[in-house]
Automatic annotation (TrEMBL):
Its EC number is 3.6.1.55. InterPro entries: Mutator_MutT (IPR003561), MutT-like (IPR047127), MutY_C (IPR029119), Nudix_hydrolase (IPR020476), NUDIX_hydrolase-like_dom_sf (IPR015797), NUDIX_hydrolase_CS (IPR020084), NUDIX_hydrolase_dom (IPR000086). It catalyses: 8-oxo-GTP + H2O = 8-oxo-GMP + diphosphate + H(+); 8-oxo-dGTP + H2O = 8-oxo-dGMP + diphosphate + H(+). It comes from Pseudodesulfovibrio profundus. Pfam families: NUDIX_4. PROSITE patterns: NUDIX (PS51462), NUDIX_BOX (PS00893). The keyword NAD does not apply. This is 8-oxo-dGTP diphosphatase.
C-alpha cells in the first residue's frame, strides 16, 4: 500500500491575485509549481501546519484564513491528501526563503505554469 502524505496548502491572496511557487531544485518533484505549504506534522493541526509552513517558506504569518476544500491525489509512489486554505490577510512581507521562484497569478487569465497534478483542479476552480 502506498503511503499517504497529509499536506496543507495556502492560497495566498494579494490584490486579487494568488501566489504560486516553484518547487526548488533538490526537492521532490522540483520544477513543478504549487501552492505554498507542506506536510502536517503528527503533533499539529492543519491550521498550525499552515502557519508554520508559511513562516518557514515565505516569512509571513497568516492572520485571516479559512478552510476551503480537501483534495486527494494518487501519484506513482504515494497518495497526497491536501487541505487547502484561503489566506486573505497575513503579516510580514512575502520572501523566497527557500530560493524558490514565485509568481502572483491573476485568476482572470489562463495559467501557463506547470502545476503539480494534484493542484490542477484547484487552479481550474480558481479560474472559473
Amino acid at each position: 500500500m502506498k503511503p499517504t502524505l497529509n499536506v496543507v496548502a495556502g492560497i495566498i491572496w494579494r490584490n486579487e491575485h494568488y501566489l504560486a511557487v516553484e518547487r526548488p531544485e533538490g526537492a521532490n518533484m522540483a520544477g513543478w509549481w504549487e501552492f505554498p505549504g507542506g506536510k502536517i506534522e503528527e503533533s499539529e493541526t492543519a491550521e498550525q501546519a499552515l502557519v508554520r509552513e508559511l513562516q518557514e517558506e515565505l516569512g509571513i504569518t497568516p492572520q485571516k484564513f479559512s478552510f476551503w476544500q480537501e483534495v486527494s491525489h494518487i501519484y506513482d509512489d504515494f497518495t497526497v491528501q491536501l487541505h487547502f486554505y484561503h489566506v486573505r490577510e497575513f503579516s510580514g512581507e512575502v520572501q523566497a526563503l527557500e530560493q524558490q521562484k514565485m509568481e502572483w497569478i491573476d485568476p482572470n487569465h489562463t495559467v501557463s505554469l506547470p502545476f503539480l497534478p494534484a493542484d490542477i483542479p484547484i487552479v481550474e476552480a480558481l479560474h472559473l
